[in-house]
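Working notes for the structural subgroup meeting. M.R. asked for a predicted model of this chain before we commit to crystallization trials. I am recording the input and output together here so anyone reviewing the notebook later can reproduce the run.

Input as submitted:
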Amino acid sequence: MNQWTERRARPARRHVLRVSVRAGRLGSAALLIGSLIGSACAATASDVGAARGNWVNAWQGSPTTGATFDTKSCPSDVGLENQTIRNVVYLSAGGQRVRIKVSNAGGTAPLKVGEVTVAPTLASDASTSAAPRTVTFGGASAIVVPAGSEAISDPVALPVRALTSLAVNVFVPEKTGPATQHFLATATNYLADGNQSHDAAATAYAGHASCWMFVSGVDVDAPRNVDGTVVFLGDSITDGYMSTADKNQRFPDFVARAMAKRRGPTFSVSNAGIAGNELLTNRDLLMFGVPAATRAARDVWTQPHLKAVVLLEGINDIGDKSAKAPEIIGAMQQLIAQAHAAGVPIFGGTLVPFMGSNSTYKSDYGTPAGEAERLKVNEWIRTSHAFDGVIDFDEATRDPADPSRMKAAYDSGDHLHPSDAGYEAMAREIDVDALMRAKAGAAKTD
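Returned structure, recorded in token form:
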């Protein structure tokens, strides 16, 4: 069941922070987006200087910081020193130019980046299918990014195709300290000593990393039929936890593939999921990120050519913090208000079943009390008409014989996160045509 209703809103006010960077050979006019947390509509990447074109966000790895569960495979707690990380990212849209967002959003000290390069990759190993091209910032190949900030590169002439992988290589010459990362990459990334940013054969990349580091976004100058960006804001279910690594089986990936098959107008897909994220409060572990209504200022409203948002959050508030439905609804209303202030339609996803998950996740995950709150939240999402549309992920994934549980064929085994088949079922619940019409103000109800 998809429910689509129309809501008109005021256009957003847009602000860009421009900071001169002067440090030896560093660029003198690099564009930096300052600390965006706490501002509802801070900066928009579409406003970047002379980078005119049809810019959309083709990939996002919402940045966090702090130690991960496996500090050997993701050394974000200590960071890197005189090393290169090859981040392998999956593009939802193609184009003739790219620009890279380098992030020090979670850093506690300035981040010195010696060089960034990009190249297409088959993602079957660390090698690239072409020689990596240098990325510049204000015309220079090196940049210092202040703590709490992110830098957007100059456009790079590099044709890329939708639904292919891109290697984004970041060389850091000095000790970084705790590093900005996205811990649940569900993709293999690579580490090498020294500056190996131009190593196409990847002979020097002896190490692996389970997280993305220092890179939070890739924008593309897309063909005109790519009519904007849709952002999926969520937690581990949006982030694709328990999906098959290196296969791009997150439910927004399935949506991206559906978009790519469309004839005529389409959207790029930007995944702003962070595993463990909540609507209301900070989790104990920094890697789970700040609350969704707070980080949306950076992860959602800054995306270029933003046309729609899909929200799927709240299950961790219930499970981890025993939050009550009115609290969760209040946080959702805050995000709805932000979206409407930006003139962007926002669609609410119902929370998927989670009974049976308590043995793994404890607290109120999969308890009768937690289930009661989930049902109340879902009833409000479906009936309040507060969102501009409803996507019924609950109905798409639940067991008809026991609606409090996920359908066995869609269950990854922990009774909370879908399998690859479950993520595909979630994507099928999204009427792509309706999503495209909704940005133009058309409505659908059923």
